[in-house]
Amino acid sequence: MAAPMSGVGKPSVTSFQKKTRSKLISIAGTRPSVQNGQLLVSTGVTSLDYLLGGGLAVGTVLLIEEDRYDSYSRMILKYFLAEGVVCRHELFVAAAQDNPDDILQELPAPILDDIAIHKPAEQPRLSSEPQESLDAMKIAWRYQNLPKVQSALASSCRFGHYYDVSKTMEPEIRQAAKFHRFYVPEHPTQSSPTHSTMPESYSALLKSLQEVIHREGFDLAAPMSNSRNILRIGLHSLGSALWGDDLCCHDNPKNGHSLTTFLYGLRALLRSSLSVAVVTVPSHLIQDRALMGSITRLCDNAIALESFKGSERETNPLYKDYHGLLYVRQIPHLNCLASKLPDHKDLAFKLKRKQFTIERLHLPPDLSETVSRVSRGELSGAAAVASACGSVTSGNKHLDF
Amino acid sequence: MFTELNSILNASPDTITQGEFILISDRKSDASFLIHHFLTFYLKARCRVCFLGLVQSFNHYHAVSQRLGVSLLQAKEKGQLVFLEGLSESLSVLSPRETNTGSHLGRGGEAMDFLRDPAIGLKSLYEFVRSSLSSSDGAEEWGPPVLLVDDLSVLLSLGVSVGAVLDFSHYCRVTVCSQLKGNVAMLARCDGEEEEDDGDDEGSERLLKGLTHQCSLTLHVQGLPTGYCRDIHGQVEVCWRRRRQCEGKYTQKKLFQYKVHDKGASFFAPGTSSAVL
Hints:
The complex is a heterodimer. Chain A is of the alpha/beta class. Helices cover 25% and strands 17% of the residues of chain A. Chain A has a single domain (30-111, 151-360), classed as P-loop containing nucleotide triphosphate hydrolases (Rossmann fold, 3-Layer(aba) Sandwich), CATH 3.40.50.300. Chain A is globular and about 75 Å long. In chain B, strand 8 (252-260) and strand 9 (265-268) form a beta hairpin. By secondary structure, chain B is an alpha/beta fold. Chains A and B meet through helix 8, helix 9 and helix 10 of A and helix 2, helix 3, helix 5 and helix 8 of B.
């Protein structure tokens, strides 16, 4: 696809020129990366976009290692699909446990009071909104049209959107998006004519993906037309027992390479089409760390979530501002030698009503009389009394005057 | 190619040693920048190169090589480079479309035949290598043949056994290094700690040990033992084995730290990074 350049040795050809070389097609909801000119889409979570270097590159896979109860990884998957609906991309959802239609019903509602976004489908609903918001700013009316300032890690907010997780997406918005599904119980295992290396569910999924990509014209080999679109693929809980795979059940699985073969085929499909995939894997069930390493290497981006729910950290006042920890396992270097790793490795996330924030983990200031941070005697008393306010010492009797 | 690495290895595009088997390995790190170095180095040295790019698309290698000063498209057109793009050939094998059942797979598709049944081994892949490097049409204008593989560990992930991969590397070494007097460079990646031997990462550890025994030069890439640093991406240990000329010193090791930039990588002695001094 890349036209050969005449040579890097010439002083006139600079890397700045390469980035503005416009072979990039303009598709709604995408933007070129400032680092290497890749086409990026938003994951739906602006903090995650910032961690991944501006967004998720088209043609790559994001692997999410699920937290113990699959609550936050599922949330990120829903953000990803909701972003696809809002940007009018096509969706492909595959799941073994829940019906993909149910996953779609639970998508969070987008927050549409940002006037910079134009969405003709929602025009009738927005007609009442500007009146209210204009009325809301009588004094600082010059700030009306500016995008909202984000204090957490974020890039420009016109690229990504924000969602309200307390409400589900309106059916009209949801039905405007084209949606393909793959539900494992609907594809019963039939005896394949050739001996296959993968369980039938994986090979059926790969075949279904290939067919959708080819039929809907996401192939890069297809003739370029003006209206290209992106296919967002969400694969839920690959590797779990419901997919017919015994990775999570045995220490030495019989076909331990079935998931990795599938991921290899998925990478081959994605590199040759305009699509992005988010895959969640229950890594806490896989005992073999080396297998997890080879799964990570076959995906491009990889993050792992560890939630505090149900662990003893949930009640630890040190972590009470956060819902869990986030680890960045891998960032790819696509079409370039070096990848941009995040500066800090200690990241924590918090799911608020209107935002999923990922921040550098910082401990609250220790205002108690004792010097050591882990003095549980007084702090646990304070935690029992304090509600959701910020100060650790709200119930500390030593500072009561 | 990276000029600092050339001076470390005492190699230059004008004079290359023949019959070398170079093993690039990494542990919990990413050594693929070294493969780009060797690819551009041997193309600049006017060697005939067979490159098995199993993990990334052709455009990725092409984009990186352009930054290092070599055009893979031109090399392919001139016949200097034979490129096997594993990803695109694998699709026709992994999920054959119904229209293709009777048609003939291309040379690349046959080379990736092991995806259909990993138990049959890598014989067809070896045949592909042998036929690309020993064909003599127009071979007079190019130098000695070179085989580059990126990477071998993905073959383990696809179900091929360690023994089959070691057989493949041995056959390639015999053909390319001894018979055709060329060079071989392979990348093998490893994920576990070296000390643990409870059978977790048995496959890639055994592969690494077997390949280390066969090779004449290893470059082992690791993260820094003291932790993550933004300015120093890791350390490289270069180890020369079986030097034929000096019988006294059989193996020689050197340790460097490196940092990968947009257009290359810089290597320096430990502790002399520009961020520190």
